[in-house]
Write a structure and sequence with these properties.
It is built from 4 helices and 18 strands. By secondary structure, it is mostly beta strands.
Length: about 325
């Protein structure tokens, strides 16, 4: 099974085969969904692994990736993630997971996307009118996960989102659903997650245009629903060294299908090195990062960093702090 897994990875790395398996026809759907900030990943660990995380998801970042993962660890955890996204956009996440008992876990998460105010321009003042407008996004989520058996878990999330563009506001509710299954064959497991499923959204508010014309009716757009299915296992694991590998198929409603691959090397469960690669993703390609996990007086402390490369837009840097209580 290990040999088959690596053969698949090598085959998918071929650009010719990739073009045949994953045509860019799905790119015709680009631009049909709103609330794009919900597609920005959370956590330095997951991002360094190329976002191939739904079948790993064994820390508090599972609040974003797969709610079924909340039962895959035993500590109560708090996660803070800061992402310096492209074009000076800040993306932050704060979440906490509390285990009610061995089989039931509860979590909450807060996501915020912010940027500096921008000048207002018009047809007659292309360099600015002297006024400024702002743009921001927030999302508040509540998650629950239950371990049905030692091998199978499921979870769900209800998320409220609000997007603000100057005088316009868009609000809505979405849900995530996830499953996590250990096959019983070594450490192999697979997971399925559906994120950001909900009704179409449209902004509220009125905008006054040049000539005192006003617009108060707006087009509806679908939320950025994503279906993910992932597979992970440890090809090597002893008391000192551990290697985790993961592969994940992603099906967004507003773009082409794509594949994420990632790995994590752990030394003494203290020092971590990670890497990943995205196949058939516009702009994005490789990622890498590192992390440490050490005990402190009141908690287990983890610090993770991830670098994400973009072909034309530069790069993105993520830092996350994880506290296990």
């Amino acid at each position: 099974m290990k040999k088959i897994f690596f053969i698949i990875i090598l085959a998918l790395s071929s650009s010719n085969l990739t073009a045949q398996l994953f045509p860019v026809l799905g790119g015709q759907r680009a631009g049909i969904s709103t609330a794009q900030f919900l597609k920005i990943g959370v956590g330095g660990r997951a991002s360094a692994m190329g976002d191939a995380f739904v079948a790993v998801a064994n820390d508090a970042s599972a609040l974003y990736w797969n709610p079924a993962g909340l039962t895959q660890f035993s500590e109560h955890q708090i996660l803070f993630s800061h992402n310096r996204w492209v074009v000076d956009i800040n993306h932050d996440f704060l979440g906490g997971v509390y285990h009610l008992d061995e089989s039931n876990s509860f979590g909450i998460g807060l996501t915020a996307l912010t940027m500096q105010k921008m000048p207002v321009t018009t047809e007659f003042a292309p360099f600015g009118t002297g006024e400024y407008f702002g743009f921001s996004d927030i999302a508040i989520a509540v998650s629950y996960s239950r371990k049905m058996t030692d091998q199978f878990s499921f979870g769900g999330t209800v998320r409220y989102i609000e997007e603000t563009l100057d005088k316009l506001k868009m609000r809505g509710f979405m849900i995530d659903l996830g499953t996590f299954y250990w096959t019983g064959l070594g450490s192999t497991r697979f997971a399925v997650a559906v994120s950001n499923f909900g009704n179409n959204l449209a902004p509220d508010g009125e905008v006054v245009l040049v000539g005192k014309r006003s617009v108060s009716e707006w087009q509806e757009f679908a939320p950025p629903t994503v279906f993910r299915i992932g597979f992970a296992f440890e090809p090597y694991d002893d008391t000192e060294h551990k290697i985790t590998t993961s592969i994940q198929l992603n099906h967004p409603n507003d773009n082409s299908e794509n594949v994420s691959t990632g790995f994590e090397y752990s030394w003494n469960r203290t020092l971590y090195l990670r890497g990943g690669y995205k196949i058939n993703v516009e702009e994005q390609n490789f990622t890498f990062g590192a992390g440490i996990n050490v005990p402190i007086s009141i908690a287990q402390f983890g610090l993770d960093y991830a670098y994400s490369n973009f072909s034309r837009l530069g790069s993105a840097h993520r830092f996350s702090i994880l506290l296990g209580l």
